[in-house]
Amino acid sequence: MNLKLFVLSAFFCFTAFSVAQTNKQDVLFTVDGDPVKASEFIRVYNKNLELVKDESQKDVDEYLKLFINYKLKIKEAKRLGLDENANYKREFLNYKKQLTKNYLTDNKVTDALVKEAYDRLAYDVKVSHILFRFDTSNTDTTAVYNDLLELRKRAQKEGFETVFNDLNANYKQQNSRALNYKGYETYAEHLGYFSAFKMVYDFENVAYNTNVGEVSMPFRSSFGYHILKVEDKRPSRGEVTVKHIMVSNKQMDSTLKPEVRINELYKKIEQGESFEMLAKQFSDDKSSSGKGGLLSPFKSGQLSSTAFEDGAFALKNAGDISEPFQSEYGWHIVKLVDKKPLDAFDVMKPELEQRVKRDSRSALINTALTEKLKSSYKITENEKALTYFETLIVDDFFKGAWNVPSGFDAKKNFLVIGNTEFSYGDFANHLKSVQRGYLGKNVSPKDVISKEYNAFLDANLIKYREDNLEFEDENFAFILNEYRDGLLLFDLMEKQVWNAAVKDTVGLEAYYNKNSSNYVWENRIDGVVATAAKKKDVSKVIDLFKAGKTVDEINTQLNTDKEQKVIFTRGIMDTQHQSLPKDFEYKEGLSKIYNYNGAYHVIKVDKVLPKSTKTFEEAKGMVISDYQNYIEQNWLQSLNETYKVEVDNAVLEKVKSQILN
Predict the structure, then answer these.
(1) pTM surpassing 0.85?
(2) I want to staple 133 with a disulfide (CB 3.0 to 4.6 A). Which of 48, 185, 318, 485 is the partner?
(3) Do 123-235 and 520-613 have matching folds?
(4) 238: phi > 0 → left, psi -120 to 50 → alpha, else beta; which?
(5) Domain 239-340 is in which class?
């Protein structure tokens, strides 16, 4: 296409689109006169489009019906006063506070910290350190710094490990992890390997910026002063994908011993049987057994089991299979599918942004943010007020007994941020709240006021931003309102539908009696399944069963320490049970030989439990769910009759045109 034609085509597309474009003031429908704007509907529709599996709900008219029902429920919740409930208000405010944190950031600084964190995640550092703990609010740290510097010089001369061992051998305190060196609460610890986000940011910084074998200069963290030695740096273990067979520690069959079963399965793998088929047949991890034991990829530290992670990462080449090992959950055999390094930066960036904001490095972001806010909002400061407050910092302040003097004018103007004024009294209250942090300290009044004024200004700048965020950021306002209504809807549904169905025992039983044909047991058997890789071994099982041998006797006769020919699974099994073929014929006695999941099976059926209606107790969970749906449909009908809904069809046509284009 030539450039002119392309420009014209784009123009016509834009023209057609703009004619039907809605504006922010367009009202799509009203509920008893309360307007719902088209922009809200379009945003919700587009946001949820990919999540909707029911194709009918992607139709604008069908989705509009759902959205109207949603708004009817919100209207009813407010009529019932659920938005005035104390628990609702508390939960909403907690969410608002959490959401606000995501908008109180400096993007430039955040991006730099995210990239730095990503680079550090590429490898682990192995570190030992010596820490002198002390009151971190103390500004006079020359002595502690020099004492630790002397210890560093010793470490450079005698070796870090020598000094480390000397401290642990000669300066232990009774009943304490801490040492006592020159009166300092001291710790000398091997920290092992760690990566980004595992330590406070100040400590992480020095660890990553110190060469292997070197001892750092003394540095300060929120715990005190440290020196550290970097013993090693290694590439990150990255990400691993594995398959596994798990035999759970908890078994319904008391005769099944997990360690015995896992070793039986391992022998079958060594004999050349398919790992994946054995996982499908025998793994107790039902979330992965159907996929041949395949687990989602994971990184080191991501799972709740260190033993499992170590077993998985120990495998080197795709296809390698571990020996059986035990975790907190049971016994495992693991097969390596893939190993790869860290994901690309763009993939990890969203996750890293959240971690950076929760980490101690967030202080750098806050500093950058307050500097930006100082240039965004009009601030009127009162330098004379600071000089005045310096004269008020007397000895009582450092004893925790400070108060404002008589004649103090608490209403006098101290600071203005935007359209919010702060008085002398506000700053005085701040000073009262922090004075305990200065107990016994030797700090000049000027330093106290300077530090606390900056803290007061920064805190109130951020609070001003928080208070006005809903009016300054459209996206924030939408998300907040969405949660506000969603939380209200949950409380309403719990009250009107979910709890109502559970508590209405008479209605539940009546509903069950009317619809009992919907709640049935499918065909089941009580029996045992014998599984083998070779057809002749299953045939031998059949012969032994016919000869009157028990499962234990057959197991002893066919299986040895060196070879596992057959595995038995017993219990009550239905059509969905992983051990039964899909075309299994339900009848008592010995079945024919079935070939599926890469193995041969014969089923000895002791009893057939035919399709039957479940009792009320057996079906209760499903009955409650269905009864809840029944209650909700009747309730929605009554809401549509109670509240008047009017749709503006002209606006609806514009909405459809905008969505379709």
Answers:
(1) no
(2) 185
(3) yes
(4) left
(5) alpha beta
